Hints:
By secondary structure, this protein is mostly helical. The chain is 70% helix and 0% strand.
Amino acid sequence: MPPPYQPSQLRLLHGAIALLVPLAWITGLLVYSAHDGRFGRLPFTPPGEWIDIHGTVGVVLWPIALLFGFYAFTAGRVRLRQPANAIALLALSLAVGSGKLMQENWLRDGRLDHIVYAVHLLAWLLIALAVSIHITAALQRGGLPLVRSMASLQLRSGDRPGHWFAQIRRSFKVGR
Ligand code: HEM
Ligand code: HEM
C-alpha cells in the first residue's frame, strides 16, 4: 500500500499548531508555577517574564488556530468525523477562546478567582488529554506511516500553495 499523503495546506497548519500548542502548554505551566501554584509548583521555576512570553506564543497561535479550524470544517471535514480529531480541535478552541479573554494583569495582581481563568486552566488539562487521545487514535488507525505522513515535506503536483484556495472552494461544492 502506498504511504498516506496529506494535503500541504493541512500539513503546514497542523505542523504549526503541533509546534505552538506544546510551547503554549509549557509556558502556561511556567506562568502557573510562578504566579499561582495553588495545586503545587514546579520544583524550580526559571526566572523570566513568563506571562509576556506565553502571551506572545498565544498571539501567534490564535490566528493560525482560526485558519486551521476553517480548514478542518471545510476541506478537512470528512476527517473531522473522527472523534479523536474533533476532540483535539475542540480542546484547542477552548484553550484559545479562553486565552483571548484572559488579561495579563489578573495573575500579576493575584486575582485568581476569575471564571475565565478557571476555564483557561481547565482547557490546559483538557488539551493534554485530548492530544494524547488524538495521537493514540492516529497511531491505532494508521500507525507510524500515518503520523509520519503529517510531517512529510513531499509535494504532489496540484497541491501547491496556488491550489489551496481551489481546494477550499471545491469542499463547498462537493456534498460529502
Ligand atoms: C495549551 C495550553 C494553553 C494555550 C493553548 C493557551 C493559549 C493562550 C492564548 C491564545 C492566549 C491569548 C494571547 C493573546 O491574544 O493575547 C493566552 C493568554 C494567556 N494565558 Fe494561556 N494558554 C494555555 C495555557 C495557559 C496556562 C496553564 C496559564 C497559566 C496558568 C495561562 C495563562 C495565560 C495568561 C495569564 C494569558 C494572558 C497573557 C497576555 O494577555 O499577555 N495559559 N493563552
Ligand atoms: C497539538 C494539537 C493538535 C491538534 C489541535 C490537532 C488537530 C487535528 C485535527 C483537527 C485533525 C484533522 C484534520 C482534518 O480535518 O483534515 C488532525 C489530524 C491528524 N493529526 Fe493532529 N492535532 C494536534 C497534534 C498532533 C500531533 C502532535 C500529532 C502527531 C504526533 C498529530 C497527528 C495527526 C495525524 C496523523 C492526523 C491525520 C489523522 C487522520 O487521518 O484522521 N496531531 N489533527
